[in-house]
Amino acid sequence: MKKKIMNSMEVFSKAMVQPLMYLSVGGLVLAIGALLTNNTIQGALPFLSWTPIQVLGKLMYQSVMTIINNLGVVFAIGIPAAFAKKDKHHAGLVGFMSYLMYLKTSNVLLEVTGQMAEPSEMIGLIGTGQAEILGIQCVDMSVFGGIILGCIVGYVFNRTSQKSFNGAAQIFSGVRFTFLIMIFVSILFGAADNVIWPWAQKGIAALAGVIKNSGTFGLFLYGFLERFLVPTGLHHLVYTPFQFSDLGGVLQAGDNTVVGAYAIAMTELNMPVDKMSESIYYMAIGFTKMFGYIGIGAAFIHTAYKENKKRVRSTMIPLIVTACLASITEPIDFMFIFCAPVLFLIHAVIAGLFLALLKVFGVTAFCGGNILSSFITNLAAGSEKTNWPMMYVLAAIQIVLYFTVFSFLIKKLDLKTPGREAAASEEPEQAASAAASGGGALTANIASLVAGLGGKENINSTENCFTRLRVNVKDPSLLKDDLINQVPNSGIVKKDDDIQIIIGLKVAEVRTAVEDYLKTL
């Protein structure tokens, strides 16, 4: 049982990470787009206001942001495809169709029960507990809905997609049977979402009063929940009431009454006040986004196994830049939320702690947006008004704290963070040596490899990590090492019916060649 659970978690972890890897490239494009279209930076560099540059910046930002805003869809497709043992493209398609049906179920039930929220002119549906996903207004489970439904589809697909029927019922055979089942499962999931999730949302909203009346501890709780609830989408219900309602404060500016932390901060920026009011702390959730993720990313790079450091570095650096310059942290968050939940809990604690420390040290600086616009805004406002130099002292401490704590726990608990995937640390020199082999030499003797694994009938499934071909076989006694070794490798690791062949960085090519060859038999 333990083995099956561990195997399932490994597949789940890889399914989560794979879509996010694309964002290491997209994140840089998004960050550049955010800088080009930032009003504060345009003020400092007027040439950026040129229309062609602004159009380019908006295209760069919005095109990638569409993916970030629809990660639930990505996971609903990617997780079933990763879980599926066969016909992965069908599994992904069933996942997408199931997600659409789930969204529409939620939408129809909101409409027939008269619970459809009206969007605000300023912030749309944020804070209402609902969201518009793929043009469908529904109860907001954020990416959590896509992850849960994706796992369900993957489970159902593997148990039903090979089912066959006779006679007139043949139309329901194979993947069509899976789809038939998922029609009803998706409807049930959407209905359950509409009944259960609003109660969770009400519980989070009820904490607003506690946060408001708990002083410095309330700020800690505010920062903690804003990070901790990211995977569920409930974090929107934490910060929205404070930033856009009287929970965040009320300011009388001449004849005008200004309500909410956001409006107050923007008003006081242009007022001759000695110091920004304490409402600014509710805008400071960007502090950890700008600085903390530098320490987190550095810890992942530092603790990655030697042969994986280059890959992890090339993945993490663009994502760190994205967090600092665009305040988009989900790509990094989902790299360790599920594979190392203890780290995410500690992450939320540190984020809350430093929000409280900003108040303890009297820092009323602007900590939102991105690291460049924050610097420019605080410089313009002045240190007397914001105490911004102390913000950077706390920032340095936070970066070091994240790096130290994360590095220690990752190594101490052997957490499977990026670059530390299962068994990747064994025989690093041999794996690196095999990686240097040419693709042709690796794939030339695939027939011998398959024969060495006991033939097609003995192979249950093939997967790969970053250096190893992972094969699950029916009968390990049928293995013939001499035939397997016809394909250059650095060793064979046998764990009952799970066989791992250390290929190196060309392993994806070998896996593809094996699967293509199996189709010909």
Outline the structure in words:
The protein has helices at residues 2-21, 23-36, 39-44, 51-69, 71-83, 88-112, 142-160, 175-212, 215-228, 236-244, 261-269, 286-290, 292-303, 309-326, 330-333, 341-360, 371-381, 383-386, 388-413, 428-435, 439-443, 446-452, 481-484, 507-520; strands spanning 130-133, 136-139, 250-253, 256-259, 459-464, 468-473, 492-495, 498-502. With 521 residues, the protein is an alpha+beta fold. The protein has 3 domains: 2-197, no CATH class; 216-413, no CATH class; 428-520, Gyrase A, domain 2 (2-Layer Sandwich). A 4-stranded antiparallel beta sheet has the order 5-6-8-7. Strands 1-2 form a two-stranded antiparallel sheet. Helix 13 (292-303) runs antiparallel to helix 14 and helix 16 packs antiparallel against helix 19. The longest helix has 38 residues, at 175-212. Residues 423-439 have low confidence and may be disordered.
The residue ranges in which pLDDT falls below 50 over 5 or more consecutive positions are 423-439
Binned, the helix content reads 55-70%
Counted up, domains total 3
Give average pLDDT, whole number.
85
In short:
By secondary structure, the chain is of the alpha+beta class.
